[in-house]
Target: Toxin-antitoxin system, antitoxin component
Amino acid sequence: MKTLPQSCEQCLEEFDSALEDLRVYLQRAKKNGLPEPQARELIVTFEVAHELALKLMSKFLLKQGKGPYSGSRDLTAEAFHADIIDDGQGWLDIVIDRIKYNPVYEIDTQEKFLHNIQHKYIHLFERFEETMTKILN
Model:
């Protein structure tokens, strides 16, 4: 049985839910700090939210007759040009940080990545959520 493709509104609902989960983890981190298991959970939750944001961007831009895209960098650049994100460099930094954090590499980037999630990337996600909510409602 085939499933119907998701609408932009459904993608936004999924992203909203993941963003709320991320907010909960960030609140816990403020109260209790970030021991290793919680730090990894926070990063995984962040990555899920980012993937859902990219899915929403892709779905929205496809609906506008744009795409497909070869990767998250191209998609991010197009989303910036379409004014659905307001800080193209910040979103590209997310892509770069996720690549650097890959456990395949021995570079220890977790502390910087966690700092960026808590102080920079959450705000990018929240502005994206506001923008897409206005556009889709």
User: Anything to note?
Assistant: The first helix runs from residue 8 to 32. Residues 67 and 74 are 9 Å apart (CA to CA).
